[in-house]
Amino acid sequence: xxxxxxxxxxxxxxxxxxxxxxxxxxxxxxxxxxxxxxxxxxxxxxxxxxxxxxxxxxxxxxxxxxxxxxxxxxxxxxxxxxxxxxxxxxxxxxxxxxxxxxxxxxxxxxxxxxxxxxxxxxxxxxxxxxxxxxxxxxxxxxxxxxxxxxxxxxxxxxxxxxxxxxxx
Length: 168
Description:
This protein is of the alpha+beta class. It is built from six helices and four strands. It has one domain: 3-Layer(aba) Sandwich (NADH Oxidase), CATH 3.40.109. Helix 1 (17-28) packs across helix 4 (76-109) and helix 2 (47-56) runs antiparallel to helix 5 (122-129).
């Protein structure tokens, strides 16, 4: 987890099939409400699709530069069957987000790089993927052509409350 960085420049080196498969397997292991896995993941290698996703992401061109772009969409009806409106409006989003996080951390563990992209036009992304669910996140995936420095983080004491462990 400490190695994860937001990478926005990629080598043209293609991804190995076994690494992509391991990333998919990691996403599949993510916890989900009622184990319903109320999400669907799309992988795009085709340049034209990645370009369309980059446009939908307000011109974030690194999306087309990376050899793969993953898009995580909700499957709200799957979650709503068991949990009603809360499942439709919240749990499916949580499921897609957790799966995306697992996939991202697996990618880093495999020596790959990503950047989480949440700033995009949902309808444009929906048209590219052809999914009626809500696109929650997408990320570029590939070998880094840069080495970003770690981003600053808030102090743990600023984030957590309650029975916080004390240090001596």
